[in-house]
Design brief:
The complex is a heterodimer of chains A (488) and B (123). Helices cover 76% and strands 2% of the residues of chain A. Chain A contains 20 helices and 2 strands. In chain B, 23% of the residues are buried. Chain B has helices at 2-9, 11-29, 33-55, 75-106, 111-122. Classes of the chains: A mainly alpha (488), B mainly alpha (123). At the A-B interface, helix 5 and helix 6 of A face helix 3, helix 4 and helix 5 of B.
Chain lengths: 488, 123
């Protein structure tokens, strides 16, 4: 007996259960890989079903174990949650595919699959949670799994990077838990909807509690989503992870925490607080700094993966910028950017990972003429880079256009200028890679393209970039509905 | 006098904040990775104490409905913190495992030395 109303919890449960089963069947790797991909595919199907359901009949609320709020735990699947779980499930399935078919980078493969499944389960949980403590638990699962999929590479650098990530992540968790305690103190609830109702009457009585809670929450989730200047762990962590992990961490994980922050903002705090308190200005300034600093640091990098990691810092800035501008088009731009940056960064990390695996070259100065040996991979990298810069016709243009228009709507012309400048900066840091690869002296002839199954995800992601660049209308109703949740 | 009284009634919150600051300070200033981890645990404990103190009432009983008991302690924070403790334990266990690996690779537990060793290789 299957009813669509159970689909939200089934996504989490499928991934969690598979995560426990996969290491048990490690003797039969073929079966383990099948289970891994199968679970991913089931979750994609469930996410599509949920999205259709939400578009048709509005927000779904699932009471776990039939214990309804305020005593039970709820999953609130609104347009934002449906959109986020669609993005997470589809992009992570593409990454699963790559991990299964690419040459192995870790020793204990079944364990690696299990960690990735745990991480995905936690990400789906975070974007759907309606109960703030439940959200915290999912945040913890995803933090631990995210650190583990870096450490699993086992090199000196990756262990050091993952330890630093773990410590800062734990600090962030502490901040988040502290802010939950302060909010629970003045509301007496943990369900975000009920907390909001209680907050309306008690916020005025206990302004200090609310302020402290907000400060800890911005810092807690800011560390985890690498909001400048709390990004210091990110470049090392993302650059030293295995290819699939880098793509997953940069493309999805940091953004899931932004989504968590925004869901807390509109479900629990109410967007008015952004104006009453200086929260909006603080986030705008931090986002602007992130965009500039991320781009400037990226320019001086020679290591390609570090360059991509710094670019992620800048792109997270874009998403925060769109959300904190709070005009309809800016929020839509930020929501678009969650998807489009996930596509672009996953493509770039996977393609660069392929280049490193096939040639052993990790630096821009080493890739001379490689494009002639690996034409398809470098075509994909070029497309991803063009989209990052925001050339019209690619997906990156759409989200940047929305963000810039949104900044103009808000009357803050400086942020539209900032987006233009940062596009130029990203051209400065992406083009050397492409120019060296295409026009450098000839590379050694024994470097070849990878197998067809490894190239397939790259091609699909490239097509997605072109598709959303030329016809962005497919997800538009969902993006509009999501933006309405925030700007209403 | 009024200040002292206020401090006394909020003694658990006060201790929680003091513990938090001790943990945070130790974590930032000490170089030894194990000490950093211990500091992290102190910080976590501070938050747990704070959370549990929210639900505590002077002279309150366990929330089991029996005749004659009117004043209850709120059980929700305690239940939540049970989860929090488990999470903190798994964090610590995982971090200690990483410390062991770090020691194998770098031969030291001093965070400055580790950065120095790693930095040399980068350049």
């Amino acid at each position: 007996m299957f009813s669509i109303s159970h689909a939200p919890i089934l996504m989490v449960v499928t991934l969690l259960m598979t995560a426990f089963v996969v290491p048990l069947v490690r003797k039969n790797m073929r079966l383990a890989k099948g289970l891994f991909l199968g679970a991913g595919l089931i979750v994609v199907a469930l996410a599509v079903l949920i999205t259709l359901e939400v578009l048709q009949s509005g927000t779904m609320i699932y009471a776990v174990g039939e214990w309804s709020a305020p005593h039970g735990i709820e999953l609130v699947v609104d347009a934002f949650a449906a959109y986020a779980s669609l993005v997470v499930s589809v992009i992570s399935f593409i990454i699963y595919w790559f991990i299964v078919f690419a040459p192995r980078e870790v020793n204990y493969e079944a364990g690696y699959y299990a960690l990735i499944l745990l991480l995905s389960a936690a990400m789906h949980g975070i974007v759907m949670a309606g109960d703030i403590f439940n959200l915290f638990v999912f945040v913890e699962i995803s933090s631990l799994a995210a650190v583990a999929i870096i450490a699993v590479k086992g090199t000196k650098e990756s262990i050091e990077a993952s330890f630093r990530y773990l410590m800062l992540s734990a600090l962030g968790s502490g901040g988040l838990l502290f802010s939950i305690a302060l909010l629970f103190m003045i509301t007496g609830h943990l369900n975000m909807g009920y907390m909001r109702v209680a907050l309306a009457t008690t916020a005025g009585q206990y302004p200090l509690n609310l302020l402290t809670a907000l400060a800890f929450m911005v810092i807690g989730l800011g560390v985890k989503s690498a909001l400048f200047p709390l990004h210091i762990w990110l470049p090392d962590a993302h650059a030293n992870a295995p290819t699939g992990s880098s793509a997953l961490l940069s493309g999805l994980v940091v953004k899931v925490y932004v989504i968590a922050f925004m869901r807390i903002a509109y479900m629990l705090l109410g967007m008015d607080l952004f104006y009453i308190l200086p929260l909006r200005q603080i986030l705008l300034v931090l986002a602007a700094l992130a965009i500039i600093a991320g781009s400037v640091f990226a320019i001086v990098q020679d290591n390609i993966k570090r360059l991509l990691a710094f670019s992620t810092v800048a792109q997270v800035g874009y998403i925060f910028l769109g959300f904190s501008l709070l005009t309809a088009r800016a929020v839509e731009g930020a929501i678009w950017h969650i998807l489009i940056h996930a596509i672009m960064k996953t493509l770039l990390f996977l393609a660069v990972g392929v280049v490193i695996q096939q040639s052993g070259y990790k630096k821009i100065s080493q890739v001379h003429g490689l494009a002639r040996r690996m034409p398809l991979t470098f075509a994909c990298i070029t497309l991803g880079a063009l989209s990052m810069v925001g050339i019209p016709g690619t997906a990156g243009f759409i989200s940047k256009l929305y963000l810039a228009l949104g900044a103009l709507d808000a009357g803050l012309v400086i942020f539209a200028v900032l987006i233009l400048i940062s596009s130029l900066l990203s051209a400065i840091y992406y083009f050397p890679l492409i120019i060296t690869a295409y026009f450098g002296h000839d590379a050694s002839p024994d470097v070849k393209e990878p197998s067809l199954a490894v190239r397939l995800p790259l091609v699909i992601l490239s097509l997605a970039i072109l598709f959303y660049g030329l016809m962005p209308s497919m997800l538009l109703p969902l993006v509009r509905q999501t933006a309405l949740l925030i700007t209403r | 006098m009024a200040l002292l009284e206020r401090l006394y009634t909020n003694i658990y919150y006060l201790v929680a904040v003091v513990l938090f600051v001790i943990g945070f300070h130790t974590m930032l200033t000490h170089k030894n990775l194990i000490k950093k981890l211990m500091a992290l645990n102190i910080m976590d404990t501070a938050i747990f104490l704070f959370f549990v103190a929210i639900g505590y009432r002077q002279g309150g009983q366990a929330p089991i409905l029996v005749p004659g008991v009117e004043k209850f302690v709120n059980p929700i924070p305690s239940a939540l913190i049970l989860t929090g403790i488990v999470i903190s334990v798994s964090f610590t266990a995982f971090a200690l495992a990483l410390v062991v690996l770090l020691y194998k690779h770098y031969g030291t537990l001093d965070s400055d030395e580790i950065i120095a060793i790693r930095g040399k290789k980068h350049v």
